[in-house]
Structure formats: structure tokens, C-alpha cells
Amino acid sequence: MKEMIIGTPNEKQLLFMKERHRHIAFGGARGGGKSWAVRAKAKLMCMRYPGIRILIVRRTYPELYNNHINILRKELFGIVRYNDKEKTMTFPNGSTVSFSYCASDKDLDRLQGVEYDVIFLDEATQLSEYQMRAIVACVRAVNDYPKRVYYTCNPGGKGHSYIKRLFIDKRYNEGEDPSDYAFIQSLVTDNTALMEADPEYIRQLESLPPKLRDAWRYGNWNIFEGQFFEDFIDNPEGYRDRRFTNVIPAFDIPRGWSVYRSYDFGYNKPFSVGWWAVDYDGVIYRILELYGCTANPNEGVRWTPEKQFSEIARIEREHPWLRGRSIQGIADPSIWDTSRGDSVADTGAKYGIWFTPGDNKRIPGWMQMHYRLSFDDNGYPMMYIFDNCKAFIRTIPQLTFSTTDPEDLDSSLEDHVADEVRYFCMTRPITPKRSASVTQLADDPLNMNPKVKYSNIRRVDI
Questions:
Q1: Which fold has domain 236-456?
Q2: Interior CA angle at 227 toward 225 and 233, to 5°?
Q3: Which end of the chain, C or N, has fewer beta carbons within 10 A?
């Protein structure tokens, strides 16, 4: 039988080979030797566990073929049988490596009802959170083989925020066990084989534009090329005095502040409601939200307008920040459409939930969001987000530029929160620049000016 050659891993690749967590991310920069590590680990597992079922996924078939199928067919010629129709390699001991691509959500249909023991998501950040979670759900079987998911990744792409949350920020949601996750950073300088074969590659990375260089050369996950709202910053260090952060802990809203409601309708896709407070200086605070999304990102809960407005009315009756206040609503003008009978706006009125038509021009709306999210010379923005507004914090960083309109964002992504935010921002437009100093007003009894240290604000648990 022909001998199978694996090769010699570098130090970081060896750590990847030995890692035993259920979810393992590897990489963080270009040229870290990720694809080689995927192929080598898959071959080793197939030899170690007779009958194990492995899946390797890339975004497109050409990427899958050039980076894995073609190379493995050459390396394993005379050892495995390759079925081109099924895109599966079978080892003599019954182990299999299958290959699949996921360029769109429709490609997930090929994985329905299929079980694997181990899945490799190569260049995982090119996939959306929904796609990754759907693929990972295929890791299941009643046997003693390891059950693992390996993610190779660089900063940037649709799945950037999801990978960053799990492996870099280590912020876990309910049902996610922190002990299941491990991250191995691998930079181009760790790839000794590439450094020897192509020493010019690192110079190419160094010559990139600053944002790309930071992401691809140094593995900086805090910013990436293509992120639409790169001015949105969630910086816990800024909690102390609200400088250089858009996200802050919740606090009681002074009665003198105005309160607003923004709304984006959805049924099959999520609906989004945001409640806003405006302080005496015109700074806006997203204080509460209601987001109609299932556990699957960008999938609506399919609430009727009646159910949506019934819940909105209940919240406004009961929540201490909203109860007894006059709340002005702003929504997409499309909710006044009566072509199918009563409009969505008419249904809201039956529950005492009123709206005025918002200005839904996209580019001006996005610019107003940029103006408010950005910081003045002293590090203060004109928009704050309370940390209980999880939908905003999750979805806004995931949005990327449109591939057809360089001024717009990709509307195929989960942009429902962004839509209702821009409706609200367009009701209170501001200019791009403002004074670096804002005078605290004497009639601010709770000392709530954004320039005042946070120590005087009482935290409220939501």
C-alpha cells in the first residue's frame, strides 16, 4: 500500500493538531498555514478513527477544489477512492472526508439530515453566523468518535463578529459553554514553510492599506476592511466616563428627557423596535429594544402585526422608563400600505401605538448614523447604546458594504435594527462635526450630561 505522508507542522500547527476542545479556531491572519493544517488534521483523524465521518467546507466550490480536493487527491492517490459526484474520499478503513461549499443559504439544503463527527469550516468568517450554526448542527452521531468543529479564520467577512464574540471576546450566550472553545493565534511569521518559500509575502502584507494590514498581517480583530459601521465601538474601558465607547450600562432616565420609538416591520424576517431617550444636549440613547428574531440569526418569529403591537403596548404600559410618558413613534412609510387591506400602521393605532412616516432615504440615513456614532475631539459620541440592547450590539458590527453600491450596505444581511435606527436618526439630523466641549446645563438635577463622570449614575439591571 502507498505510504501516506503528512509533513512536519510548525509550532502553532502542532498546537492545532493537539487541541481537544469541541470548538477550535485557528488563524487570525493571512499566511498562517491554516489550509495545510486542515488537510493534515483530517488525514490524521481518518487514520486514527476507522469509520469516522469528516466534512470540509469552504464558501465556494472553486475555493474548495483548489485548496483541498485537488491537493488531497494528489497526496492520497492510490490510498483513497474519490467519488466526484458525492464529493467524498473514502479511506481503506472506512473513514470518509466529504466536501461541501456554502455560497448562499440555499446551499445548506444539501446538508439536511446528514451527520458528521468532525467539521472543518475553512475561512469560516466568509460564512454568515446563520450558515455556520446550521452547518455545525450536523455534528452529531451515536458513536465514540470525537465530536469537534474546527474554524480557520481571518478578521473580516460576514462571520467576523460571530467568530470574534466566541473566540476573541469570549462573550457567550445562554447554551454556549465557555469550556468548549479554544483559539490558537497563527500569524504569517509562524508559518516557517511560507517564510522560506516566499519571503516577499510578508512585505506584500506590510504594504497593504492600514486597516487591511492590521487585520491580515497582525490579526487585529477590532477592525476589518468592509465593515460598514466601523465607527461603532463597544469598549468596556469607556464605561467609566463614557469616552470612546458607544455602549454603556443602563441607568434611570430623567423625566425631563424626551422618549421616542422607532420601528421596522418584519414577519418572516425579524421585526425591530427601539426606544430612545434624548438628553438636553441632543445626545440620543437607545434604552430598550424588542427584536423579533428566533435563535437563528435573520429569521423572524412570524408574529402578526396584532401580536407585535400588543407586546409593544404592554411594554410601554409597564416599563418604568416608558410608563406614563408621551412617546412619539417613527417608522418606515411602507407600513401605511393598504393594498392588502388594513395597513400595519392602522393595526398599531388600534393598540394606541402611533407612528409618523420616517424619512427612509438610505444613504442620508446611514450618514446620520455615522455622524452620531463617531467621536468628537474629546472622545464623546452623539449616540449611546444601553448594554441591554443585545440586537443592536450583535447585528450592527456584522453589516458590510454592498458589492454593487459603494455608499450602501449589503441589504441581504441582518439589517433590520439598522433600518429602524436610521429612521429615527433622520428625525433629528446633525452636522458631521460638533463642538468638542458641551456645557453642562444647570437644570440637570441628576448630573446626566455625557461629559460627567459615570460614577454619579445609578446602574439598573434589566
A1: Nucleotidyltransferase; domain 5 (3.30.420)
A2: 115
A3: N
Phi-psi region of 189 (alpha: psi -120 to 50; beta: other; left: phi over 0): alpha
CB atoms within 10 A of CB 4: 15
Query: Which pLDDT score is estimated for 215?
Result: 66
Return the pLDDT at 32: 59
- DSSP notation for 223-275: --TTBTTTT----GGGGTT--S-SEE--BPPPTTSEEEEEEE--SSSPPEEEE
| Every domain range in the chain assigned CATH 3.30.420.280 | 236-456
**How, if at all, do strands 327-331 and 258-264 pair?**
parallel
Topology (CATH level 3) of domain 11-216: Rossmann fold (3.40.50)
Start-end of H helices in 103-158:
129-136
Using only the alpha carbons of the chain, give its radius of gyration.
25
Per run of 10 residues, the mean pLDDT along the chain (length 462 residues) is 75 91 85 84 95 96 94 93 96 96 93 94 92 95 93 85 89 91 83 66 66 66 76 83 92 95 97 97 97 91 97 97 96 93 95 96 95 91 96 90 87 94 96 48 36 34 34
Where do runs of H (alpha helix) occur along 2-69? 11-18, 34-48, 61-64
Measured distance CA(33)–CA(27) in Å, rounded:
8
Segments of the chain assigned to CATH 3.40.50.300: 11-216
- The per-residue pLDDT for 448 is 38
Joined together, the cell numbers standing for residue 62 give 472553486
CA atoms within 13 A on the CB side of 404: 3
The upper half-sphere exposure of residue 164, i.e. CA atoms within 13 Å in the direction of its Cβ, equals: 22
The answer for residues whose C-beta is within 8 angstroms of residue 281's C-beta and 6 or more apart is 438, 441, 449, 450
